Amino acid sequence: MRTLFLLALTFCAQITFSQNAKIQGTITDASTGETLPGVTIKSGARGTASNIDGLYALELPAGNHELTFTFVGYTSKSVTIRLAAGENKTLDVALGDANNLLQQTTVTAGKYEKPLGEVTVSLEVIKPKIIESVNTTSVDEGDY
What are 4-39's pLDDT values in tens digits? Predict the structure, then answer.
């Protein structure tokens, strides 16, 4: 009886663990082919990140999944895959550069944030005759 129970328990555990599938692969830069470490891979509530060699592995339940690959400075990529129970699938992904320009940033000594047009700036006008009369190669060298 005890042997039968252990056999049934082992069989149930094997069925439970074989329901998951594994997806793995390498993430690279589309233009250079270099591997990208630290890319975030998400599928619903599950996720992982690529290691220093750009490799990743993620266990998911069998079924359809949408994987999203994101990395700072690169365009995000979504891939829909279908996984069967116990399947090991390899999916290599190449991410392209995102041509995003950063917004202008103003650093001030004030306590509150202000737009650049409202920031008080100290300004001094130097007349061309003063610059010409001093023998310097750079504006910051002379005493004006």
Answer: 554 555 555 555 555 889 999 999 999 999 999 999
Question: Sign of the C-alpha dihedral, residues 43, 45, 46, 47?
Answer: positive
140, 126 contact by CB (below 8 A): no
With H, G, I as helix, E, B as strand and everything else as coil, classify residue 95.
Answer: strand
Task: Judge contact between 65 and 47, C-beta under 8 A.
Answer: no
Helices (H), the chain: 2-17, 128-133
Beta-bridge mates of residue 57: 24
Is the Cβ–Cβ distance between 62 and 84 less than 8 Å?
A: yes
Task: Please answer whether residues 87 and 21 qualify as being in contact, where contact means their C-beta atoms are separated by less than 8 angstroms.
Answer: yes
The pLDDT confidence band at residue 141, using thresholds 50, 70 and 90, is low
126 φψ region: left (φ > 0), alpha (ψ -120 to 50), beta (else): beta
CA angle 103, 107, 110 (to 5 degrees): 130
Return the amino acid letter for 105: T
